[in-house]
Amino acid sequence: MLSKRVIPCLDVRNGQLTKGIKFKGNVNIGDPVETARRYYEEGADEIVFYDITASSEGRGIFLDVVEKVASQIFIPFSVGGGINSVADMRDVLLAGAEKVSVNSGAVKNPDIISEGAVRFGSQCVVLGMDVKRVEKSETIPSGFEIVIHGGRKYMGMDAIEWAKTGEALGAGEICLNSIDADGTKDGYDLELTRLVAESVTIPVIASGGAGAPQHMVDAVTKGRATAALIASIVHYGEYTIPQLKRYMQDAGVHMRTVW
Amino acid sequence: MLAIFDYKAGNQTSVHRALEHLGIPNEITNDPAKLDKAAGIIFPGVGAAGQAMDELHSAGLDDVIKGLIARNKPVLGICVGCQILLDYSEENDTKALKVIPGECRLFNPSWLDYEGIPIRVPHMGWNQVELKRECRLFKDIEPDACFYFVHSYYPAPKEEFVIGTTRYGIDFCSLHGREGLWAVQFHPEKSGRPGLKLLRNFHDYCLEAADAQ
């Protein structure tokens, strides 16, 4: 039986681990390589790195981080942030990531999904989606709109339609982030998660809002996600990954318990 | 020394890093002399079967890997490297290496998982392997250990070559072959401690096989 996955997300800025709320006010909270290794040893099922560095110099530092992680942890990890071309994808895959997450870059140029899928295989192309709740309208019938630039720019695209398009173009997985829920610790947006999960057949990772282990159970049951992305809940030591996985297992979710 | 068969497969450096971590001497190579000298070969693979076969064929490496297997060199195929040891893959309608009888088929997204919900394709994440017969690769690995899978097509070899199965909509073959020629659908190089142990077991087997010769 396939286990549901618990995936810590590490935001990295200029080589440092950082965390913000609703994409704002980031503070440094540690070394990404050390943290990734600790999560690996504690039984994380996968790790996501998000590069929020703007400069090319910072970009180089980040690729260094990816290489170090690849030589120390032996579970899959994905890298996202600032991926705008097949060349960018190639850089992070060569540095040792299994998967690369395209987000704004794919909204601006959807061909990057198909080009990446043909070149490297669908299994390594993750479509990252940042979504905000809006009034239902003709353009946004689901009431969930795609936003970019950390939630500042509305794209006039319906999230459900975009998920289907991404799947058709060859994305192997969707990482679905609710900007309304991000950093609130009030739980994932289950309505959004289920809507997207039921409109595609590829795996969907729920992201944004995890504050308690029950939220993660809800994401993979009510929300139909196959994985739960977490950040603050583990970065600040409120819970450890084994605690979260045990809670989910006790709630009847099939988990990987030996590592 | 283990050789990682170089045909530009996407995961060959991941395999290299895992072996380095284990302190197992290894080299990524497609030099026939080096491959012949190696105690064993890891045949990696990721992406699409058609592309992998094209890559092998255009470099004349399909005959190289088949020759090594014919001479009983221990081989461990991983993921696409596991699939293309069979006769055929539905993926890109691909004629494969025909080392092990059988074919590779696409998961059907209308099959139901254990919760009664349609399975998602690709099969992506951690799953278990149930051994149908004893396997040296699984020495000292807990029966409930999980391995990392990511694939849309699954191997369906002839029954006598099935060593282990995994439940995903159906019970598919996740480990096939015979002693000294093993093919795993999952990625041991990305399966944490149990995966590293499997690589270690393969290396131990290769050293013993080399000593016995």
Structure description:
The complex is a heterodimer of chains A (259) and B (213). By secondary structure, chain A is α/β, with parallel strands linked by helices. Chain A is 36% helix and 27% strand. Chain A has helices at residues 32-41, 56-72, 86-94, 104-108, 111-120, 159-169, 190-199, 213-220, 232-235, 241-250; strands spanning 5-13, 16-21, 24-30, 47-51, 77-80, 99-102, 125-133, 144-148, 153-158, 173-178, 204-207, 227-230. In chain A, helix 1 (32-41) runs parallel beside helix 2 (56-72). Chain A starts with a strand and ends in a 9-residue tail after the last helix. Chain B is α/β, with parallel strands linked by helices and 213 residues long. Chain B has one domain: Class I glutamine amidotransferase (GATase) domain (Rossmann fold, 3-Layer(aba) Sandwich). Chain B has an 8-stranded mixed β-sheet with strand order 2-1-3-4-14-13-12-9, sandwiched between helices. Chain B has a 4-stranded mixed β-sheet with strand order 6-5-7-11, covered by helices on one side. Chain B has a two-stranded antiparallel ribbon with strand order 8-10. In chain B, strand 12 and strand 13 (170-178) form a beta hairpin. The longest helix of chain B has 21 residues, at 192-212. The chains are: A alpha/beta (259), B alpha/beta (213). The A-B interface holds A 1-5, 40, 45-46, 70-72, 74-76, 93-94, 96, 98, 120-124, 172-173, 201-203, 224, 226-227, 254, 256-259 and B 10-11, 13-14, 17-18, 20-21, 46-48, 109, 113-114, 117-118, 120-128, 142, 144-146, 148-152, 167-168, 187, 189-196.
Helix count of chain A equals: 10
Q: Give the total of beta strands of chain A.
A: 12
Q: Largest beta sheet of chain A, briefly?
A: 8 strands, parallel, barrel
Count of helix runs of chain B: 6
Overall structural class of chain B, as computed from helix and strand content, comes to: alpha/beta
Order of helices and strands of chain A: EEEHEHEHEHHEEEHEHEHEHH
Based on secondary structure, the structural category of chain A is alpha/beta
The value of Rg of chain B in angstroms is: 16 Å
Chains forming the largest contact: A-B, 36 and 45 residues
CATH architectural type of chain B: 3-Layer(aba) Sandwich
Overall 3D form of chain B: globular
The CATH superfamily name of chain B is Class I glutamine amidotransferase (GATase) domain
CATH class category label of chain B: Alpha Beta
How far is it from the N-terminal to the C-terminal residue of chain A, by CA?
Answer: 16 Å
